[in-house]
């Protein structure tokens, strides 16, 4: 007769991971993020950054970003409330530490849309728990078209972001995965495949698998 071990009835959850998407402006991070969050099976929590940049007409405070002043940003940074922070395209951006810690400590995964500077900082703090994906545009011509079609930024902002894209693109070698976002649905499927495989890595399943194996070996 098998005697149920109550400890095995609620197997430990695996470690939460941090999935980071980076790209030059306009390559498609926000669009991919939206697809990931809309999919109920994906179970990711978005890290909502703080930024000093002006809100776009399509954005809502607290959903896409927390829009804050430079003074408030500097206070958060100086108090150590940011997991990472960087100046990007002339504005400050940062990841509030508290919400990320809370999600991870519940064994759930966090999605980040941050630049290469922030990615380096997060990786240095938790190398085992970070999965990084760099999204490339199919061409610079298409990148320009996407920024223009999005029509959310002034022409001089688009021009500055395109200039910055050349430096950003050279960072691709520091990422775990690199995807060319030509066909959106295919890129989305590739991101899902990466997430699924990374969730299944032994190091992330160690506690649950150890409990399962001990149950297996206790069978007669
Ligand atoms: N594969 C794709 N094919 C065609 N258009 C796309 C594709 N992916 C995204 N887009 C479009 O390109 C524009 C820019 O995409 P998005 O806003 O997601 O870029 P982003 O990388 O988040 O940019 P930013 O860093 O400036 O926020 C949007 O209008 C989006 O609809
Ligand atoms: N290091 C960080 N980079 C961030 C963060 N939030 C966003 N970003 C990056 O900034 C640029 C511009 O974003 P946009 O919304 O103004 O177009 C883009 O590369 C984002 O990935 C953050 O918290 N930290």
TrEMBL record:
<dbReference type="GO" id="GO:0004385">
    <property type="term" value="F:GMP kinase activity"/>
</dbReference>
<dbReference type="InterPro" id="IPR017665">
    <property type="entry name" value="Guanylate_kinase"/>
</dbReference>
<keyword id="KW-0067">ATP-binding</keyword>
<feature type="binding site">
    <location>
        <begin position="23"/>
        <end position="30"/>
    </location>
    <ligand>
        <name>ATP</name>
    </ligand>
</feature>
<keyword id="KW-0808">Transferase</keyword>
<protein>
    <recommendedName>
        <fullName>Guanylate kinase</fullName>
        <ecNumber>2.7.4.8</ecNumber>
    </recommendedName>
</protein>
<keyword id="KW-0963">Cytoplasm</keyword>
<feature type="domain" description="Guanylate kinase-like">
    <location>
        <begin position="16"/>
        <end position="196"/>
    </location>
</feature>
<dbReference type="InterPro" id="IPR008145">
    <property type="entry name" value="GK/Ca_channel_bsu"/>
</dbReference>
<comment type="similarity">
    <text>Belongs to the guanylate kinase family.</text>
</comment>
<dbReference type="GO" id="GO:0005829">
    <property type="term" value="C:cytosol"/>
</dbReference>
<comment type="function">
    <text>Essential for recycling GMP and indirectly, cGMP.</text>
</comment>
<dbReference type="InterPro" id="IPR008144">
    <property type="entry name" value="Guanylate_kin-like_dom"/>
</dbReference>
<dbReference type="InterPro" id="IPR020590">
    <property type="entry name" value="Guanylate_kinase_CS"/>
</dbReference>
<keyword id="KW-0418">Kinase</keyword>
<dbReference type="GO" id="GO:0005524">
    <property type="term" value="F:ATP binding"/>
</dbReference>
<dbReference type="InterPro" id="IPR027417">
    <property type="entry name" value="P-loop_NTPase"/>
</dbReference>
<dbReference type="Pfam" id="PF00625">
    <property type="entry name" value="Guanylate_kin"/>
</dbReference>
<keyword id="KW-0547">Nucleotide-binding</keyword>
């Amino acid at each position: 007769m098998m005697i149920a071990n109550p400890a095995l009835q609620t197997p430990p959850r695996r470690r939460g991971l941090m999935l980071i998407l980076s790209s030059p402006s306009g390559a498609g991070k926000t669009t991919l993020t939206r697809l990931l969050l809309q999919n109920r099976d994906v179970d990711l929590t978005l890290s909502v950054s703080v930024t000093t940049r002006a809100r776009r007409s399509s954005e809502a405070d607290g959903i896409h970003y927390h829009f804050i002043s430079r003074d408030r940003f500097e206070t958060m940074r100086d108090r150590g409330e940011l997991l990472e922070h960087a100046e990007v395209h002339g504005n400050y951006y940062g990841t509030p530490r508290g919400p990320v810690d809370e999600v991870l400590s519940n064994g759930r995964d966090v999605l980040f849309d941050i630049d290469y500077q922030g990615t380096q900082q997060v990786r240095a703090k938790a190398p085992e728990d970070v999965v990084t994906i760099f999204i490339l545009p199919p061409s610079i011509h298409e990148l320009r078209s996407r920024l223009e079609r999005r029509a959310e930024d002034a022409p001089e902002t688009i021009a500055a972001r395109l200039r910055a894209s050349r430096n950003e693109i050279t960072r691709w070698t520091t990422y775990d995965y690199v995807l060319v976002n030509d066909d959106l649905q295919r890129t989305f499927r590739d991101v899902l495949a990466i997430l699924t495989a990374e969730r299944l890595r032994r190091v992330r399943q160690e506690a649950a698998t150890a409990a399962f194996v001990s149950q297996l070996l206790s069978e007669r």
